[in-house]
Amino acid sequence: MTIDVIDAKILEVLQENARISYSELSKRINLSLSAVSDRLKKMEASGLISSYTTILDPAALDRQLQAYMMVNVDSSGNIDDLLTVINDADEVLEAHFVAGDFDYMLKIATRNTATLADLVNRIKAVKSVKRTETTIILTDLKQRYSVPPVANRQ
Fold first, then answer.
1. CATH of domain 5-46
2. pLDDT for position 78
3. pLDDT tens profile 33-70
4. Is domain 58-137 given the CATH code 3.30.70.920 in the classification?
5. Which string of DSSP letters, residue by residue, matches 48-90?
């Protein structure tokens, strides 16, 4: 879907606060309520807006430790057991198949080093896992949850 400058403004405001009312949104971008509503319906129908969500602070839920884990698997390509462990572990926030020295990258939020060690051991116990490397996050310097909206150049 192509987005224009007005769509980009709508999306910027929604990224700041997805709970904003249509009325307040229309005031902020100086567009009628019905026009804002129509544009949002089109962006939702096209899949440009895939969902509205609530982002929770991990520390507020006693998840003080965040880490990235890199995982290598053997050449058999059988990762069903690994996927089961990943999908069953609430601590795993993201899992990605990646290019480079490792096959998979996981983002983890857990309580402490003991719970991290438990998760590492569960993953290492999977038969197809050859190697892991875990890096603990000390400070978040930048964190975005979506790409910034940019109007298409016409």
1. 1.10.10.10
2. 83
3. 999 999 999 999 999 999 999 999 999 999 999 999 99
4. yes
5. SS--------GGGGT--EEEEEEEEE-TT---HHHHHHHHH-T
